[in-house]
Amino acid sequence: MSGNYMTRKQYERHVAATKAVEEKLAIARKKVGEAASYGDLSENAEYDAAVEESGFLAGRVEEMKSLLTGVQIVEPRHTMEGVATIGKTVRLRKQSDKAEVTYHLVGGGSVDTDSGEVSFFAPLGKALIGLKKGDVAVVDLPGGKTKYDVLDVTFSE
Q1: pLDDT of residue 15
Q2: What pLDDT, on the 0 to 100 scale, is given for residue 139?
Q3: Where in the chain is the domain with CATH 1.10.287.180?
Q4: What CA–CA distance (Å, rounded) separates 97 from 87?
Q5: How buried is 141 (Cβ within 10 angstroms: 0-12 exposed, 13-18 middle, 19+ buried)?
Q6: In 10 A of CB 116, how many CB atoms?
Q7: Splitting the chain (157 residues) into consecutive groups of 10 residues, what average pLDDT does each group show?
Q8: Domain with CATH 3.10.50.30 in the chain
Q9: What pLDDT sits at residue 157?
Q10: Under 8 Å between Cβ of 120 and 132
């Protein structure tokens, strides 16, 4: 898959997160103006900190907006049943210790790892795309290759 894809839920979450960072940026820019009003900018630590924060947030907003440019919303029910794609839930069993895990495949953008989401850009996500029940996912991780048996693939949303 080329380009950026998101589930509808992920898209809405990413838009909200982008707006939140834009609001923080507006506050940071006000701080720059306030700090500049204190006088000599050459020795104004508040001004330097405000400019640094504003620059960081401006970069973050641009990065977040770029993920929304040309994004395609994936409707999982319009994809092949039983095939791991964005918007699907994949239940796996790790071959080494037989531990079972479940992941929700999502696109690029805001990812809620605490609820088991994994981006298709991540090594695990890349390894899962296109697999079906009974397949083996081989994931290249910094500690070496990890193998998972695909137990089930279902619709997430």
Answers
A1: 94
A2: 95
A3: 5-72
A4: 27
A5: exposed
A6: 13
A7: 78 94 95 79 78 94 92 88 94 96 91 91 94 96 92 87
A8: 75-155
A9: 59
A10: no
pTM, whole model, 2 decimals? Answer: 0.77
Question: What pLDDT score was predicted for residue 54?
Answer: 93
DSSP assignments along the chain, one per residue: --S-EEEHHHHHHHHHHHHHHHHHHHHHHHHHHHHHTTS-GGG-HHHHHHHHHHHHHHHHHHHHHHHHTT-EEE-GGGS-TTB--TTEEEEEEETTT--EEEEEEE-SS---GGGTEEETTSHHHHHHTT-BTT-EEEEEETTEEEEEEEEEEEE--
The domain over range 75-155 is classified in CATH as 2.60.40.10: no
Architecture field, domain 5-72: Orthogonal Bundle (1.10)
Query: Residue 1's pLDDT is what?
Result: 40
